[in-house]
Amino acid sequence: MNKFVLLALLSSLSASPVWAGHFNGHVDVKVGTLSSRAAAGQKVFNQKCGSCHGLNGEGTLAGPPLIHDIYNPGHHDNGSFSRAVTKGVQQHHWTYGNMLAQPNVGFSDMTGIVSFIREVQKHNGIVKKAHRM
Ligand code: HEC
Q1: d(CA 118, CA 35)
Q2: Which of 128, 127, 110 is nearest to 49 (CA)?
Q3: Distance between CA 83 and CA 73 in Å, rounded?
Q4: How far apart are CA 58 and CA 109, in angstroms?
Q5: What is the tens place of the pLDDT at every residue in 32-44?
Q6: Is the distance from CB of 18 to CB of 133 less than 8 angstroms?
Q7: Pocket test for ligand 1, best of 53, 68, 82, 109 (most atoms within 8 A of CB)
Q8: Staple 38 to which of 34, 56, 78, 86, CB 3.0 to 4.6 Å?
Q9: Confidence at residue 116, expressed as pLDDT on a 0 to 100 scale
């Protein structure tokens, strides 16, 4: 194979959305100042979601960071957070496996959790983008 073909192949691989999004550790998250609702959500999130999604949504080896461009509100709206928690998630963006439903998290917990994730996303430059996948 000639060098240019190989290079073109490699760069197309790294530009493909699946592998560009693939990730197995954690990202640096700046929490910033939170509203009181988001601060309440932070506590619940770190307790009930942190084992997989990491402290403040930074990700772990068991689950993806939610402070990630994939989860910007244009691609995963607030409803997708409630669905994830009430119904679980089939593995589709990553290779961590499925997320099971989290029956110990109620509606009032979710409003705080979503506020928390959205505020921290904003503090990390993650803003709404049109869904183009
Ligand atoms: C046992 C591990 C685990 C726990 C606990 C967990 N999650 Fe997940 N979650 C995952 C995995 C793994 C995925 C990624 C699935 C994929 O897209 O491949 C995921 C995906 C998600 C998504 C994306 C949904 C979508 O439509 O793609 C949201 C939102 C989410 N989790 C929120 C939460 C919240 C909120 C909590 C706490 C109440 C929580 N998760 C607890 C493992 C977990």
Answers
A1: 11
A2: 110
A3: 14
A4: 19
A5: 999 999 999 999 9
A6: no
A7: 53
A8: 34
A9: 98
* Single-letter amino acid, residue 93: H
The amino acid at 33 = T
Instruction: Return the residue matching tokens 């068991």.
Output: 62
Q: How far is the CA of 50 from the centre of ligand 1 (A)?
A: 10
Q: Which residue type is seen at 98?
A: N
Of all protein residues, the one whose alpha carbon is nearest to atom 19 of ligand 1 is: 99
Q: Extract the tokens encoding 38.
A: 């988001």
Return d(Cα 65, Cα 94) in angstroms, integer: 11
Q: Whose CA is nearest to atom 36 of ligand 1?
A: 49
| Residue type for position 109 | D
Q: What pLDDT does residue 58 have?
A: 97
Cα 43 to Cα 108: distance, rounded to the nearest angstrom: 13
